[in-house]
Amino acid sequence: MKFGIIGSGMIGGFHAKAIAAMNGGELGGVADKVFERSQAFAEKYATKAYKSVETMLADPEIDIITIGTPSGAHFDPAMAAIEAGKHVIIEKPLEITTERIDQMVAAAKTKGVTLAAVLNRRFHPGMDAFKKASNDGRFGKLTSASAYVKWYRDQAYYDSAGWRGTWALDGGGALMNQSIHTIDALLYLAGPVKSVQANTACLAHTDIEVEDIAVAILEFENGARGVIEGSTTTWSKNGHPSRVQLSGTEGSVFLADEAFEIWEFMHETEEDDALRAQFMQGAEAGLGANDPSAINFYQHQRNFEEVVSAIKEGREPSTNAAEARKSVELIQAIYKSAQNDGAKVELG
User: Fold this and answer.
1) What's the CA angle centered on 121, arms 64 and 13, to 5 degrees?
2) What Cα–Cα distance (Å) separates residue 328 from each residue in 40, 150, 181, 236, 325?
3) Smallest Cα–Cα separation from 179: which of 145, 154, 211?
4) Using one digit for the tens of pLDDT, what is the confidence trace for 36-86?
5) Which CATH architecture best describes the domain 124-293+328-339?
6) Domain 2-117 carries which CATH code?
7) Which residue, 141, 118, 105, 132, is CA-closest to 65?
8) 226 within 8 A of 186, measured Cβ to Cβ
9) Among the listed residues 260, 279, 309, 298, the one whose alpha carbon sits nearest the alpha carbon of residue 120
10) Whole-model pTM above 0.90?
11) Tell me: the pLDDT tens digits for 313-341?
């Protein structure tokens, strides 16, 4: 299937690399509001530069559109692509409000096309093992489930583009932008959240509207309690890995990016030693923790391959819009709680 990319920035580059490496897809071209940017991108990634988004959407050879525009600018190109009958894959977050997501879902259903998200933190072997342990009930009664994203962005990062740090186009700060993939991983592993209480602040940056640190206390539907901490204020030499930690009456697993810091169960299996040997090698520098361009693309590749397979098989991809909506709904609830002095906010 042939891909077209909307957005020629850093995220579009990740998409281009992933498409070049994937099975079942090829890059057909790129479109951006500024044609000169599209030309430079097309030259770098050996593809076609369309004169406009509309021109690319009118090309019958393009099957799938990926969108890598700023977070709050996903809706319009997504709706245009859906109206053109294209399948759509959108970078995180799917959109910055559940209301917009629901409109996109309804439109995709009407046109009979697939609407999916980039949920790339789900696509690595350590996460596969973690998810299997959760599905198999190896934690016993799950009692604790938390996520920590202690990253760093300097002031120049926010100053580099007018949309950064704005509610309209970033949709939020350390949670909606930097932490959303880890929050998605937490929900993927631990299940839905029942209620949240939160506090946010902007402590280390100026001239931004959104938070650079947030802490939330969670109650899950299954009874577990947990914490989400997201930050762009936490400097370290190499960057802290993002962490997802689950514990229960019969086991604990702490994941740091793609390596396990703890993999312990009351009832051991033959696979446990092999998993520890393979994945407990230590997380050195955090993936994207200090430098967003340092994120690798192979998880995007697997994500795209999953969507293509789902389209060919006539099923919903595992990264469908309903899955992507969950993290946005939770982050919205966290913001609502923080804006109301930490009042408890119920979800669902």
Assistant:
1) 50
2) 33, 19, 10, 28, 5
3) 211
4) 999 999 999 999 999 999 999 999 999 999 999 999 999 999 999 999 999
5) 2-Layer Sandwich (3.30)
6) 3.40.50.720
7) 118
8) yes
9) 298
10) yes
11) 999 999 999 999 999 999 999 999 999 99
